[in-house]
């Protein structure tokens, strides 16, 4: 039986283990990062469980906004399904759940980005209802020394 629910601090070990299927070799989060991730207003983590094991997850951040009549928007990140459970719809279940929760929070849109260059991953997000032609994302990554206001930035 498959169940979906909000994740809490008690789920951290299972979630960090699952994240190895997203970014293998990632260092584990610090206790401060765990605390911040589970107490940040508007940030929710969702998990799909099969026979008590966490097999898929994503998070949703609902961000207050002053445009669009003051309606918030949502950002979905860290979408992952355990490698042994892919291709069975669990990823779609967790992403659709996050989108439903964003709708319940009256978000006017939901944004999702991916760093994956695999067209199959893109097709997955399209099957979940995301339009790849609607927006363009630009990213600045934090270099080892941290973000600065160097001449390379605006």
TrEMBL record:
Gene3D superfamilies tied to this protein: 3.40.630.30
Keyword Calcium assigned: no
Residue ranges annotated for the N-acetyltransferase domain, each copy included: 2-154
Pfam family, one: Acetyltransf_1
InterPro entries: Acyl_CoA_acyltransferase, Bact_Acetyltransf, GNAT_dom
Keyword Cell cycle included in the entry's annotation: no
Keywords: Acyltransferase, Transferase
EC number: 2.3.1.-
CDD domains tied to this protein: NAT_SF
GO MF annotation, one: acyltransferase activity
Name under which the protein is recorded: GNAT family N-acetyltransferase
Gene source species: Pelomonas margarita
């Amino acid at each position: 039986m498959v169940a979906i629910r909000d994740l809490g601090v008690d789920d951290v070990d299972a979630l960090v283990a699952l994240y190895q299927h997203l970014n293998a070799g990632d260092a584990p989060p610090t206790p401060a990062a765990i605390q911040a991730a589970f107490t940040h207003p508007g940030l929710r983590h969702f998990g799909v469980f099969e026979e008590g094991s966490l097999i898929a997850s994503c998070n949703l951040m609902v961000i207050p906004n002053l445009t669009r009549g003051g309606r918030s928007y949502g950002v979905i990140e860290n979408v992952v399904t355990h490698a042994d459970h892919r291709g069975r719809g669990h990823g779609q279940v967790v992403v659709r759940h996050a989108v439903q929760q964003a709708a319940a929070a009256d978000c006017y849109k939901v944004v999702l980005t991916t760093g994956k260059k695999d067209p199959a991953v893109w097709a997955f997000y399209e099957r979940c209802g995301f339009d790849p032609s609607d927006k363009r994302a630009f990213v600045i990554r934090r270099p080892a020394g941290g973000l600065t206001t160097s001449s390379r930035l605006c």
